[in-house]
Amino acid sequence: MTLEDVLLQVESGTDKALETLKEYCRFPTISAHKKAQPETAAFVRRLLAENGFEAREYPTEGGPNVVFGQMMVDERKPTLLMYQHYDVQPVDPLNEWKRDPFDPTIQDGKFWGRGCGDTKGNLIMQLLAVQAWRAVEGRPPINLKFVVEGEEEVGSPHFASFVHANKEILKADGATIEGGDHLHEGTPKIELGCKGILYVEMVSRTASVDQHSSYAAIAPNPAWRLIHALMTLRDAKGRIKVPGWYEDARRPTARELRFLKSSLFSSQALKGFWGVSEFIGGDNDFELLRRLIYSPTCTICGFVSGYIEQGTKTVNPAVAKAKIDFRLVPNMKQEKQLAKLREHLKTKGFGDIELMPAAEKLESAAISPSARVVKAAIKGSIDAYGREPEVWPWSIGASAHGFFNEVVGVPSISGPGVSYDGSNFHAPNENIRLTDFVGGSKHMAAMFARM
Ligand SMILES: [Zn+2]
Predict the structure, then answer these.
(1) Alpha-carbon distance 231 to 350, whole Å?
(2) pLDDT digit string (tens) for 371-386?
(3) Which residues of the chain does CATH 3.40.630.10 include?
(4) Ligand 1 centroid to 89 CA: how many Å?
(5) Ligand 1 centroid to 230 CA: how many Å?
(6) Do residues 365 and 193 touch, judged by C-beta distance below 8 A?
(7) The domain 196-249+296-357: what is its CATH number?
């Protein structure tokens, strides 16, 4: 049977694919530092062309090129679009890496290197699935498209205008966004959308210059002022206190909760990875998972003011700054939530605190479990892994789903993929397990057949 042959072919092609992944991961494509973007885009374009895709680069205004490739085998067949990004996160703190992040290695059944999980490994895994079909059948069973941008890790500031200008070429019957995780024991996971993110910098300035702290009895302190403002945003249990914040948030459906009931999610494993002793919300795994997926968040990502170097400095600072991220669940939109935040701070008497939203354009989005692309991913998992995947209504991180299922109108999911819950995305020692790389590629190859 063809599919079985294709899945075997994935295994025989794995070593060569891992060599290609090493080459890809050697590009230090840190978008936050605008590094190596043109050469990485060119590498991706060549890779797609070598694998039989019609590929080209699209310039964006002020940003790096977007790479687009397509292989149309038969216009009566469905089309699957795969979205990827070729950029990666910064690597600091560098001294916590056990190996050079841009000199990828294979050790202990794992591939190590910045970007191998997020998300360079996913593109190579998908191309391995394409190669397997071409080796066995001469071509894949459906039409395929790739779109690969270079700024996802800084919030895709130029991708939206590319999507709006190129809706036609992006049309498809389903899309996969980046990749997907595996649970610790190896079950693949798919997600039917994503949370969105509203990222703001808050600045409190109470003077034009720092003062000697002996004046603190009469001089205002911006750090205290900012802390007092922050205290009005969230309570100790994580509940956001901005009026109307939860108004638009999508509530769980019975079907979604059934998926979560059969989930293998384990909070114990996460506690182990992170060295955390207690989670907010108790220790019942179902309740924690429900909270993780359906709760919007408000997180202080960083806070600076005054003097924090060696020794003492008695200073009453002039400025305090905080960076805050709000994770938004589907139906909550950035602009509307930002307006609520502004209104709240004004009402609480903190209208003087400056609010600067980041250029993040990743909105929340989610599709129905009955979409064709979801069914194909579930069936493909049974072919490749012998079991159904773990299904989450949406991912807890932000992703590019909104561009596809809202702007272009293509229902999109996350997964199949190459990573697992210990992949250390955005952290030192990013890695993927080789078994997940092979499993992800088989899942993808099977999903092509099931579309
Ligand atoms: Zn990332």
Answers:
(1) 12
(2) 999 999 999 999 999 9
(3) 2-192+367-450
(4) 6
(5) 27
(6) yes
(7) 3.30.70.360
3-state secondary structure of 84: strand
Instruction: Tell me, in angstroms, the distance from the centre of ligand 1 to residue 344's CA.
Output: 31
Distance from Cα 13 to the centre of ligand 1, integer Å: 27
Taking the centre of ligand 1 as the mean of its atom positions, its distance from the CA of residue 369, in whole angstroms, is: 25
Structure confidence by residue, pLDDT tens digits, 121-176: 999 999 999 999 999 999 999 999 999 999 999 888 899 999 999 999 999 999 99
pLDDT for 1 equals: 65
Distance (Å) from CA 75 to ligand 1 centroid: 34
Task: Give the closest residue to 293 by CA, choosing from 385, 395, 413, 374.
Answer: 395
Coil vs helix vs strand at 190:
strand
- Going from the Cα of 298 to the center of ligand 1, the distance in angstroms, rounded, reads 19
Q: How far apart are CA 101 and CA 430, in angstroms?
A: 8
Question: In angstroms, what is the span from residue 426 Cα to ligand 1's centroid?
Answer: 6
- The ipTM value here is 0.96
Distance from the alpha carbon of residue 328 to the mean position of ligand 1, in angstroms: 17
Q: Is the pLDDT of residue 361 over 80?
A: no
Residues of the chain with CATH 3.30.70.360: 196-249+296-357
Question: Distance from the CA of 361 to the center of ligand 1, in angstroms?
Answer: 14
pLDDT at position 174, please?
Answer: 98
Please give the distance, rounded to the nearest whole angstrom, from the Cα atom of residue 118 to the centre of ligand 1.
5
Chain centroid offset of residue 209 CA? 40
Domain 2-192+367-450, second-level architecture: 3-Layer(aba) Sandwich (3.40)
What CA–CA distance (Å, rounded) separates 253 from 200? 31
Question: Could you tell me the distance, in angstroms and rounded to a whole number, from the CA of residue 11 to the centre of ligand 1?
Answer: 27
Is the distance from CB of 450 to CB of 383 less than 8 angstroms? yes
Three-state DSSP at 211 gives strand
